[in-house]
Amino acid sequence: MPQLLEVVCRTTKMGFAAIARVTDHRWVTCATHDLISFGLKPGDELDVETTICHEVHQGREAVVINNVAKDAGYCDHHTPKMYGFQSYISVPLYRKNGEFFGTLCAIDPKPKEIDTPEIATMFRLYAELISFHLDAVEKIKISEDSLKEEKKIARLRDQFIAILGHDLKNPIATMRMSADILLKMSKEDFTLRNAALIKSTSYRMQALIENILDFARGQMGEGIILEKERHNKSLEEMIKQVIKEIRVISPERKITFNSKLEHEVNCDKNRIGQLLSNLLGNAHEHGSSETQIKVEAKTNSDYFELRVVNSGEKIPDEDLTHLFQPFYSESGSSNKKGLGLGLFIASEIAKAHQGELKVTSSDRETAFVLQIPRE
């Protein structure tokens, strides 16, 4: 705006130009270009009734005066006498919605030939430009305020999720320990069945909490954190432990495991276990209960590969491209269970290992395949 007002002064030969916010009760300077030491700076105010801009506001028409002394309408006007100018121009400014904003005005203590078609056209064009600028600034301000509020809400939400997940870990661990004690000490079938149910539920809750925490960390920029070490037999034992946990939850479900881990793998075995747990939970939930779930783990000179295969209905092609997105549920699923984070977290664990998690599905079987570099 200061550059635009400088052009106004150069073009009209006027000594002072300003953009003013004008209402029924206030006249406030927004921007100025002052060559005559008029003294107004942005933020300064004048008594609105002492200005001709007040009349522009009321009449919504531009006022142009070449020479106050020779102008019949303004030669005795109080404003030129009060502020000491002889030439004057003021045009109304409007927002894009039609609301009156203020004026673009210029003054000089000497008479100037400004009541011409060229200057009138120039001021109208400048008024349109200022109107466009006001609209753009307002939209940016609204967007920035909205973005700040959204970021604040998102930050609070993620902090709440992280704190909630952390505080739930201890009672879940206590619940599982108590269930283990009952399973070892009790001989009553009713107690044993319920203790087993409590224990299986604790595993399910733990998996949900881990997924929520990982999602929250990802939203807050941390991503999946890995603690890599070289594993061979310990990785195989981790896979067996996850399968055992799933069997606790669903003792009726048959799960087979075939291992060909002939090389060491540089990975975070606990994260691989979490990935497998999510895949097995998905296979149990959506696969056919009458068929077995097959787990295969193998290595070659370059890669570690983990496969989870189950039978059941084919996953529709339109769902395959969205399957690893957070909070996504298959279009054919009428009874959604869980948060829809399991496969998303599994794919993020694969990416953190510089690997990939893929899925294929046919009428015969659905297979999830993890492949990560050994080194």
- Tell me the overall shape: rod-shaped
Class from helix and strand fractions: alpha+beta
> How is the largest sheet built, in terms of strand order?
3-2-1-6-5-4
| Number of distinct beta strands | 13
CATH class of the largest domain: Alpha Beta
User: Roughly how much helix do the residues carry, as a percent range?
Assistant: 40-55%
Radius of gyration: 37 Å
Chart the SSEs and their pairings:
Layout: H1 2-12, E1 16-22, E2 27-34, E3 45-46, H2 53-59, E4 63-65, H3 78-83, E5 87-94, E6 100-108, H4 117-185, H5 189-219, E7 229-231, H6 233-249, E8 255-260, E9 265-267, H7 269-286, E10 293-299, E11 303-310, H8 317-320, H9 342-352, E12 356-361, E13 366-373
Parallel strand pairs: 8-10
Antiparallel strand pairs: 1-2, 1-6, 2-3, 4-5, 5-6, 7-9, 10-11, 11-13, 12-13
EC number: 2.7.13.3
GO molecular function: kinase activity
Domain Histidine kinase: 163-375
Structure description:
The protein has 375 residues and is an alpha+beta fold. The chain folds into 3 domains: 114 residues, GAF domain (Beta-Lactamase); 75 residues, Orthogonal Bundle (Helix Hairpins), CATH 1.10.287; 145 residues, Histidine kinase-like ATPase, C-terminal domain (Heat Shock Protein 90, 2-Layer Sandwich), CATH 3.30.565. It is built from 9 helices and 13 strands. The strands form 3 sheets. A 6-stranded antiparallel β-sheet has the order 3-2-1-6-5-4. Helix 4 runs antiparallel to helix 5, helix 6 packs parallel to helix 7 and helix 7 packs antiparallel against helix 9. The chain is rod-shaped. The two termini are 60 Å apart. The model has no long low-confidence stretch (mean pLDDT 86).
